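User: Predict the structure for this protein chain, please.
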Amino acid sequence: MIGILGGTGFFGSNLLVHLNERGLACKAFARHAPPPPCHARLRRALAETQVVTGDLADSGAVGAFLDGCEAVVFVVSHLLPSSTPEEIDRCLTWFPAAFQRLLGHCATAGVRHFLFVSSGGTVYGDDERRVAFTEDHPLKPRSGYGALCALLEGLVTSAHLQRGLPCTIVRVGNLYGPYKRPSDRQGLIENITFRAINGEPIRIFGDGSEVRDYVYVEEAAERIGEVLSRPATDQVFNLGTGHGTSTEDAVELVLRALDLPRPPVTLERERPCDVAHVVLDSSRFAAQFGRACEIPLAEGLQRYRAHLVETGILRDPWTKA
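Assistant: Here is the predicted structure, written as structure tokens:
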């Protein structure tokens, strides 16, 4: 049994679908019962998954979730890169301690593999050289979200060294694709997509030159599935494509791939949490697991377009009246 903490969120849902279609039994932990999904693949996966609802601070709920789980994946969305100081303060009053207790529960329960999905887009911060980050690059996060990810990584490593918890840490690039809820605060690709669909201005924080390593979420789920199929490595890995795309180019690619009208684009002041350039060197991951993520943004957007058409969010231009 594979347990997914955050199993009804964006990445958790994609991972759940992938594992379900591989015939693997899963259990999901979520703060709230998920709403009925509109997509058939996710409906099937959830129908065959035990969903435990509760708060991470609730030891009873966490214990019920861990019962029977041989592997555990942590993909809880605890903060956002744009979280305010007040939101960060509230999170820090309880979240790290709850996470530490979770690790203890996993060690006591004999979990054979604790896989922590961290942030490759925020933990490294900025580097004026604009090179692809390797896992050995110093962590200099600019956001509270990135700083918390770095802290949680340290707690996972400590649980391994002190309590023998088998673990793997994977720092994933900027995910996009199916099941992502649109938000101005996170997710440029979805921000562009849904604002263009609704005829609203696209908001860009910065001047459009910012570079990110965009990773198609279904491919990332497949790669994480491969990690789970093997014993824990007790190592840290980047998971990205190794290719960067500027915000300006991303806007053009999304509008072209999804055949969307061009709304106004507003440039707003760069936020303190924003970094100029993040591209991940995933050669260590590829050497360990066979390959990293390879789908370029243009191809991933075509796959995302098929999902949006299938779910009725986007009309197929060939069927327009």
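The CA atoms of residues 3 and 72 lie 5 Å apart.
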